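Practice problem 4.
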């Protein structure tokens, strides 16, 4: 069974690969704008699914990001008061 470290490394490698694929897709788009005649030099069926979806104008589904709830002014003031008490006690100790 893989350890947590191995799982973390695999997740990081996967994230790095996804970033690199996006970079390559961006670079490919720039090259095709500069050299439009290169568009016929490869078979679209050999491209990854993300390229084909992008070409068709579709986007793969994305997971919704979890947003943190913003603190209200009252919550910020309460936290500030708690921290002042905390640091005052630390300073005295």
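Answer key:
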């Amino acid at each position: 069974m893989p350890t947590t470290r191995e799982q973390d490394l695999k997740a990081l490698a996967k994230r790095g690969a996804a970033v690199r694929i996006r970079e390559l897709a961006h670079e490919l788009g720039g090259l095709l704008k500069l050299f439009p005649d290169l568009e016929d030099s490869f078979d679209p069926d050999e491209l990854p699914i993300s390229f084909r979806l992008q070409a068709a104008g579709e986007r793969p589904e994305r997971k919704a990001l979890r947003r943190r709830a913003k603190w209200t002014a009252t919550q910020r003031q309460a936290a500030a008061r708690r921290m002042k008490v905390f640091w005052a006690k630390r300073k005295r100790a």
